[in-house]
Design brief:
The chain is an all-alpha fold. The protein has helices at residues 3-38, 45-67, 73-95, 124-146, and strands at 118-119, 122-123. The chain has a single domain (10-146), classed as Up-down Bundle (Bromodomain-like), CATH 1.20.1550. Strands 1-2 form a two-stranded antiparallel sheet.
Amino acid sequence: MTAASDAQGIAYRPVALLLSAWIIALSASLAVLFIGEVLGQAPCNLCWFQRAFMFPLAIILGLAAWRSDFSIWRYAAPLALFGAAIALYHSLLYAGIVPAPITPCTATGPSCTDDAMLIVGLPIPFLSVLTFGAILFFLFQLRRIST
């Protein structure tokens, strides 16, 4: 491996990290839209709050990837951190570690505890934590190599 090809590989790494974070955010946004709009499963309140942090990530990370703006981590990381905090709280409620009902997960409203809300064997709140965590991982890697 020559020095030129090694330098070229390093130059593509920030782009790959940014594209990875964007693809995850876009996939998550499209997946929840599919669940809500096509399958007709309305989200609970905590899912709405998580969407409020995921949807902007799909937009700003896509724009940053298009413009090769590697400083986007400054703006995207707080969104992902707040989304991850809500997703973690939601997961703790789901697991029963935090003793409170998931609102409005009642007999008349949507329920995150139904078996219909499992994707690849994992409940949606856990998938949300993993998704925000993966985005944060890529953003912090981007921060590390771009500063």
